[in-house]
Amino acid sequence: DFNPGGTAAAFTWTSVPNRYYYIQKELQLNLSWVDSGVGLFGSGGATTSVGYGDTNAPSRFYRIQAVRPLTP
């Protein structure tokens, strides 16, 4: 979901407790995904929701990357 001004978004996805997640962004679909700056965060349960503020770019693409936590 995006706000009417296009500068804030809310992401919700199915998640699992043994994963951490990054939000990545891309201005064009040239597969040069970069970290959104939100950082690494844990699962919120069966679903995870995160709010995100971004600049008003003409177009944006986002993806959620799941990563395994480091173990000792």
- Count of helical stretches: 0
What ranges have pLDDT less than 50 throughout 5 or more consecutive residues?
Answer: none
Oligomer: single chain
Query: Strand content of the residues, in percent?
Result: 35-45%
Helix content: under 10%
- Please report the distance between the alpha carbons of the first and last residues: 37 Å
Biggest sheet details: 4 strands, antiparallel
Give the tally of β-strands: 6
Order of helices and strands: EEEEEE
Q: What is the rounded Rg?
A: 13 Å
Shape: globular
Structural class: mainly beta
Provide an overview of this structure:
It is a single chain. The protein starts with 7 loop residues before the first strand and ends in a 5-residue tail after the last strand. It has 72 residues and is mainly β. The protein has strands spanning 8-14, 20-26, 34-35, 41-42, 47-53, 61-67. The strands form two sheets. Strands 2, 3, 4 and 6 form a four-stranded antiparallel sheet that branches. A two-stranded antiparallel sheet has the order 1-5. A hairpin with a 7-residue loop joins strand 2 (20-26) and strand 3. The protein contains no helices and six strands.
